[in-house]
Structure formats: C-alpha cells, structure tokens
C-alpha cells in the first residue's frame, strides 16, 4: 500500500526548509477585488528562490536525504523550474545534482541550471530518451532520483506554500491552485483541509491540457495527450501519488481557455505590477470565466511562479 | 525671494498623507547585488497608488488646500501619472479635478484618468494649447493649478518616498533617483541630506533627454529640446523651484544610453519579478554603465513607477 503524505509531514517539511526558503508575501489588489467582487489573497511564489514554488519541494527532498544518500547526489529529468530548484537545493547542501535535459531545451534554461552548478546530460527530446538517460545517470552515480511531483517529499514541500498563506490569512472560503502534475495541488489540499475544515479546494487547469479534469471526473488516471497551452508548467499528467490525494482532498477542478489565461496574466501584471508566468494566472482565469462562484468570499490563490521569457510574451 | 521646501515641510507632508498612501516595500535582489558588487535597496513606488510616486505629491497638494480652495477643485495639464494621481487624490477628498489632455493622448490614459472621476478637457497636442486651455479651465472654475513638479507641496510629497526608504535602511552611502522635471529628485535630495549627512545623492538621466545634466553642469536652467527616450516620465525640463534645490543638494547627475535603460529594466523584471516603467530603470542603468562607483557600498534607489504599455515593450 502506498503511504500518502499527511499534514504532519508538511509541518516537518516546513520546519526543515524554513531557514532556506523565502517566506513569500501575500498580496492583495483592491482593483482586482472590485472587478471580481471578492477578497483575493495571492501567495506570491513568483518571489520564491528560482522564481517558483518548486524550490520548496526540491529543498525538502534534498534535505531529507541521509548523509549516505546525499553524498551521491540527486538527479532528475526536467527542463523547467524543478531542474533549477533541484540544482540550487543540491548546491546549498554541497552535493552533486545531475540533470537530464533534452538537447533542444532553450539556451536560457540550460544556462540557468548550469549556473546553479548542476551537471547536465543532454539527450534526445523524447520522453523515452529522457527516462533511459536518467536511468543510466542514476546507475552510474548512485544519485537519488527526485521526481518533479510524484515524490513524497516534493509534495510535502509544496504544501508549505498553502500553510504559510493560511497562517497569514486565517479563515478562507476557497483556496485555488493550478494543476499540472499535481504536486502543488496535492500539497495545497492537504494543508488546506487540515487547517481549515470548511474550505473548498478548487483546482484550475487549461482546457488544452485537461488530463487532471478528466481524471477527476472519470475517477481513473488519464494521461495528458498532446497537451497544448501557454501555461507551460501544466503540461504534465497526474501521478500515482498525486492523483489519489487529489481525489480525496480536492473539491472541484475547472478548466479555462487560453484567452482567459492571457487576460488574467495581463490583469495581474497591470494591476499588481508583479511578473507571473502563465501557469500562475490559471486560477484567476477561472474566476474571470465565472467557473468558480467567489462573490463576497475570501479566496486564497497560489501564484506558482514568475519565470517567463520576456522575448515571447502573449500581449 | 522664492521659498524652497525644507525637511520639516516633508515631515509635515508625510504626517498629512500617511493614512492615504501605501507605505511601499523596500526590496533587495541577491543576484543583482552580485552582478553590481554592491547592496542595492529598491524603494518600490511601482506599488504606490496609481502605480507611481506621483500620488504622494498630488495627495499632499490636495490635502494642503483650505476648504475654501478645495471646494473649487484642482486642475493640471498632463497625460501621464500626475493626471491620474491628481484625479484620485481629488476624488478621495471629494472635490473636482479638471485635467487638460492632448486629444491624441493614448486611449488607455484617457480611460484611467476618467476612471478616477476627473473631468477631462481635450486640446491640441501642443504645449501652447495645453497651457492656454488650462488657463481657461482655471479661470472658469476657480480650481487651483497643481503643477506636476514645480510646486511646493508636490515636491514635499515626493520627498516622503526617500524618507520612508531611509527610515527602513538606515545609513546609505549613495541615494539615486531618476530626474525629469526634478520633483522626485529635489524631494529625495532634501530628505537624504537631512537624514544622512554623508550620503551622496546622484541623479540619473537618459542621454536623449539630458537637460538636467546640462543645467547642472552649466549652472543655468536649460530647456529640454526635442527629448527622445523610452523613459517617457523623464521628458520634461527642470523648473524654477526644482533647479535651485538640485543645485544645492544633489552631488552628481549622470546620463545613460537607451540600451542600458532597457537592459536595466529587463534585469529588474527578470530577477525581481516586478514590473517597473523605463524611467524607474535609469539609476540601475547608470550603475550597469559604471557611471557611478558603487563597489562595496550601500545604495538606495527610488523605483519611480510601474505603468507600462504591455503591448509596446522594448524586449
């Protein structure tokens, strides 16, 4: 039987990573509140180290290793925020990080990961090549594989963002997060349900990458097939750990259009003067589409990150 | 003899406007500090009401009016942040604001000012038309003209940003601000020199709009002739109040290229995940151009605002 994380595991994670993470601010916007007729509380993980909540889970996973395990290092395949987060967490513990990246990954991402001191192995840009290359790297080095989301200590780390948010806001009627692989969402849901018994946890997902929505509706894990969305952090499928947590703890999953994601992203940039990546805008997009009834309610929203390519903006 | 503001006038202004303004955060960036080899403290007026420091001066000016004056309202000609700031300040006091705008002002700016409840009078897009239209409006309404920068209480209000910054940071070696008409710079310099006797106050200006630099060097007020810069808040010339303050209180004015302004703006967007307008990036641009020696020093920088047209970004 698989053991799923509980809130006490998230508390342990928080105690472990607290000295190393930023306690990110919770921001509000009077003008967005007026537009939506609710009180929104944005947890700003775009200000987290490496620019995304991913550092919480990576940091927790690296710090939870025994000295024996740690000295052999950690590895993963990723071209995104998790790779940078794992590289930084490993450097902070003084251990090696081995990152498998597709050879066609953007230069800027290769540089970022290399800049955090990781050893990069390039492979062909297919999932099969990524997985087989990672297997080889792990076998050669003895490094511990840290999956981007389907990993106990990653989920526990991600849950600390919602924990901090609720510590600051107190009672919330609704707590929203975007969903990709479900690491952030499952950690968020565990914290929310433990801390606020009456809160509704609602996930938002791009209609163009709606595997979590379909899995949730059908109660069977559905793969993400040819996902297409500007929210490039949300292309992945749920995993064997994240799916059961989401089934148990999440109240609703809603989908949104690309147009709404871009409009919500622009609204946050213009009104709040902060930079968020498209994935962060998905919950507000759901509110703007009236997929979630927020009128008069207190709503927490996790802004997942702020890493965007300024040369390729959708406005 | 013209009476110039002193620090006690800025203290009075601060007491007056404190309940109405945002006390904006002071942010730091480890990675920018590493790049420049200094400790930079950014005062984030991009998070101020209406998205710019201009609200401080407008608010102070509106609140300083007698009831008699106030009930006739305030007026100005501006198509920028000052117009929005004055409109909001007037609405908060419940008095009329009359704004003269060129008929070719961007729709988004017309809407913003109208959204704050101001009465807009359009005119031909020449300085002569703006001034004569404003004169007419003032004569008809009896409204008090609040100049965007060459106005005692505006300067006092703008000086409260530096005051808050220094209250937070304590000792600074250098304090930097951009310079356009000099309202922000002169208020900043008065606060800095009163609070930190050994601080160097350094202004940064686009080379394409270098009237303040030329005025400072030649010790004679020089007009801004055909200024051209992406930093659209810095196109104006110094005034009869701001120039003598700057002569007395500012240590140095440096100029920077357009390329450096864009690079500095991008650096702040990417590394700090906050949105600033080009004018805000001018002091960091001067540091990146090595126009200011900051190595090992504590440097305060006023980020003037965050109002940018996302449809026309320079990246």
General description of the model:
Two copies of one chain form a homodimer. With 315 residues, chain A is an alpha/beta fold. Chain A has helices spanning 7-17, 30-36, 54-64, 67-71, 81-93, 107-115, 127-141, 152-169, 183-195, 211-218, 242-249, 258-272, 282-288, and strands at residues 26-27, 39-44, 74-77, 97-102, 119-123, 144-145, 174-178, 200-206, 252-256, 298-303. Chain A folds into two domains: 7-52 and 151-312, Rossmann fold, CATH 3.40.50.1100; 55-145, Rossmann fold (3-Layer(aba) Sandwich). Chain A is 44% helix and 15% strand. In chain A, the strands form two sheets. Chain A has a six-stranded mixed beta sheet, sandwiched between helices. The longest helix of chain A is centred in the middle third of the chain and has 18 residues, at 152-169. In chain A, 54% of the residues are buried. Chains A and B meet through helix 12 of A and helix 12 of B.
Task: Give the count of structural domains of chain A.
Answer: 2
Secondary structure tally: strands of chain A:
10
Oligomer: homodimer
Helical segment tally of chain A?
13
Rounded mean pLDDT score of chain A:
96
Lay out the secondary structure.
The structure is a homodimer of 315-residue chains.
Chain A: H1 7-17, E1 26-27, H2 30-36, E2 39-44, H3 54-64, H4 67-71, E3 74-77, H5 81-93, E4 97-102, H6 107-115, E5 119-123, H7 127-141, E6 144-145, H8 152-169, E7 174-178, H9 183-195, E8 200-206, H10 211-218, H11 242-249, E9 252-256, H12 258-272, H13 282-288, E10 298-303
Parallel strand pairs in A: 2-10, 3-4, 3-6, 4-5, 7-8, 7-10, 8-9
Antiparallel strand pairs in A: 1-2
Helix pairs in contact in A: 1-3, 1-8, 3-5, 3-8, 5-6, 8-9, 9-11, 12-13
